[in-house]
Amino acid sequence: MRTHAASSDHAGQSGGSSSLDPLDGLRSPDGPCCDVFLTGTVFLDIIFTGLDRAPVRGTESWARGMGSSPGGVANMATALARLGLRTSLAAAFGDDHYGEYCWDALAQGEGIDLGMSRTVPGWHSPVTVSMAYEGERTMVSHGHEAPPPAGPGPFPQCPPRARGAIAALAPGRSEEWIAAAARSGAKVFADVGWDDTGRWDLAGLTDLEHCEAFLPNAEEAMRYTRTDCPRAAARALAEKVPVAVVTLGVEGAYAVDGSTGETAQVPAIAVEALDPTGAGDVFVAGFVTGTLAGWPLADRLAFAGLTAALSVQEFGGSLSAPGWWEIAAWWRQVQACDAPDPQALRRYAFLEGLLPAAGRPWPLRRAVPTIGFRTPA
Fold it and tell me: pTM of the full predicted structure?
């Protein structure tokens, strides 16, 4: 039979086995069974690392590292699940081996609810090949849009009742499920991609009115607000959405709470980056976790930055998402080093009462799965 096990010399499992529930004190019998709902396209990601330079035309390059994992929206879903949030994903999966692998990895490996997802007969899974080198990445993707459902089922116009939802906004496009999620009481967190039209019209992001928080990067935020400063852009966006968060790359992130006027800026954690794939998704997952748990704005921002920093030290999108064990190991390492960083000790002291007990050494080595080993039944 096919399994999706990792090679035995790698340790460090996250995902559905997380023993920490950040919302434990907030749960009630009549509360939503789902913490976060999201929808999108799942890719099969094949990641090459250890390249000394960009591939050169007409030559063959050998990578020192390689992994495979579900990608696309699966990066975000995995990051949420590894932080202990009950995550529901609505997505189409191909009925090929790639689709089966991605489904099993998410449902069985990460504990993600795929009850609103579907397998599409005759549709092959989208694939992305990612090459990481010189702190950047180059990707080549192939896929076709999944055909719509044959019947009037719930996918995905009627999302489950959830505490939060994550949406990818696009200019000139409105998604009914976003409004439905907001009406049912979900806090909607939104990011946005590059506007290929070049118009950068904030009014074209019509679903922004349903959102609790908007998390663009600095370049996107400045273009949408016609400002030349990321902080000014965040203040302008906070007039449109309750919380505006602008990521600043190596400078960290800046946030404005439009309802209270509170601002927060947290610097990035200096790390040796291996692969930035999925770091933005991990940042959003960290911010969502802190928001649903009711943390102060600065703590949410710091936690999001920390989880993103931990992720870039590993390769792959969903492969790199940290769980609570990795966060705890990092915190113990910061406290135990010969010359601890006083600023880090103060900024992340809020973790002390949250983290699981010691049990794993630093640094951790995560499992590196293949498409599936074949073993005797």
Answer: 0.89
